Amino acid sequence: MRGSIVFRNNEHCTKGFTLIETMFALLLMLMFASLFLTTAYVFFFADQLGSHHGEEELGIFMTDMKRLFDRSEDYWVSEDGKVLQIIERDREEITSFELYEDKIRRRVNGSGHVVWMQFVEDFRVYEERSGVRFEITLEGKIYRRSLIHPSLSKGAGGSV
């Protein structure tokens, strides 16, 4: 026999690339390119990536606050506008919201520490005729939102 058919030794193919080698090199090149583009996007546009999280968090905060405010029996706003206290109808608990460092925290009966919102620059609550108005500063922007108390009566709340 002159040689095995399966393992042919072709001298003329030693100087080129096979199709599998070419496909493997192309696969590696595409993987590195996609990895580079992804990391470059994060590094070059990092300042723009987190800009909308504050607005989304504000929306969630106001939705949860509205739910709690609708269940409340009464509320009080401190004179400096930094603390909102809410008395719930079915419970004997006073829930307060205040700015702590850069977070809005929730405390029940003066104890505990549950973070409701982060990266807040300023938090103010103002009493209005039929409810409260929030002024929350995020990333240099002031967001104003109002909540109407279910009783809709003038003077439903008071000052602490």
TrEMBL record:
UniProt feature coiled coil, ranges: none
Q: Localized where?
A: Cell surface
Where in the sequence is the signal peptide annotated? none
* Record-level GO BP terms: establishment of competence for transformation
- What GO CC terms are in its UniProt record? cell surface
Transmembrane stretches, by residue range? 24-46
Q: Does the record bear Transmembrane in its keywords?
A: yes
Q: Which UniProt keywords apply?
A: Competence, Membrane, Transmembrane, Transmembrane helix
Concerning InterPro entries, the annotation shows: ComGF, N_methyl_site
Question: By its UniProt entry, which NCBIfam families does this protein fall under?
Answer: IV_pilin_GFxxxE
> What name appears for this protein in its UniProt entry?
Prepilin-type N-terminal cleavage/methylation domain-containing protein
Source organism of the structure:
Salisediminibacterium halotolerans
